[in-house]
Amino acid sequence: MKKIGTTIAAVAMLSFSFNCLAQTKYWIFLKDKNKDDAPAVSSQTLQNRHLQGLTITDETDLPVKKEYVQQLRSLDCQPINTSRWFNAVSARLTPTQLQAVRELSFVRTVQPISGQFYIAKSQPQRRSAIAPVMTQVQADEFKKAGLTGKGITIGVIDAGFLEAPSNSLLKHIFDRKAILDKRDYVNPPLTYSDKFFTTAETFSDFHGTEVMSAISGANRSENAQNGMATESQFYLARTDHGTREFRGEEDNWVAAMEWMDSLGVRLINTSLGYAQGFTDPNENYQIAQMDGKTSIISQAAQIAADKKGILVIVSAGNEGDDPSWRIISTPADAQGVLAVGATNQRYWNRIGYSSIGPEFLPYLKPNVSCFSLYGTSLSAPVITGFAACLMQANPTLTNKQIINVIEKSAHLYPYGNNFIGYGVPLASRALALLQSPAESGSVYAHEVKATGTAHTLKLPGTGDMVSIFHKKNSMHVLTQEVVRLRDGQLTLQRQEGETHTTVDLKNEVIEVIWE
User: Is residue 355 part of a domain?
Assistant: First the structure.
């Protein structure tokens, strides 16, 4: 009897496996909504939009029709996530179910969302490694001004928050109960209580914990600051499974964005990026698709920026050394998000792994950069803490105004490039811009005209090393290099095809325009 039972169980399990293998994950886009339904957002969300001068509600706030979801379930199709922004439902379907769903009168179209992707991963940070970036962005200037992100709610969408409550850098966050809520979209039920922080499944489960440390970490016993938003509060969402890296998790990301929007969150950090590596090469994203409008998550990020007033801060990606890719991942390609690259510590130019902005984009990516030894996954949360301090200083600023301040405060502004954007945001300049919005970071910038194939600049200092960006136009870099000043002089050698050269002195920037 035991042997027969074992055989039956094995057959059942094999049948279940075949059914799972036969299923593919899809977006099911629906035709309409019930205009009489109430918006599925909180009063805090509506108040935020009113203060920012946005449309208070529109059709993207209305929920997906319940009767449509019920009809899908009648086909034994179990919805995974619903999206009010896209009026869509995600579900795994067999070929038979797929055909039946496509024939439903209320279904507009069906789109597959399966496959693998590369995630913007990082290695665990060391406390000593985060200190240089705090100095680089002038974090002490915010601290002196009493800016700690107090009263600001931050959403973090990531791969896992393992052992966050016991992390010494986050103890102060949990002591004051600053985690307002959490959701696990990888392992429903969506609220996981203690298992959310204690269940180890993949190598990426610490990723969100490290990200939080870079946003708000502090060691009270050592009076050390590991992040700038030490008094912010948080909503956390786990959307990515680090081992099963498949594109189908994009719907988890969209669901987390919509959840946070419904709660009135205005600042979201996401250190995840999707690019290539699909099981089926036909499903790979192509470089040309990093255009800010092809991927669903870029579309969602743009909706968040334009319609919901949310400041989305995204890691640019870690594919800068990959000769087959090199460029930013999605959703960093969305025009409305603040994409953050990474610089090296000493020279403030692009560190090798940091992804660059594609030349076909009509706008600049990444937007800014800062030092990170372990990936853009940890440079983005540094700037998230920076943004939280600005929001505390002036809560009336819109998401786009905050991006503007951060960009103008960066050390290369206005001579940005597709390697590091406008460079490293500086707290002292950002605070000055808040005091005098009409001021521009260009007071630290100078233009020089040059002719021929060489030009000599007289600069202060002797024996100093200077970063140089050789560019084919005002935005796109041919090469970057570091050269030494000799007797206070710098001789630039014009490269073939070079029209602009940016000389980075950290405290000021010189743009040489070749005629």
Answer: yes
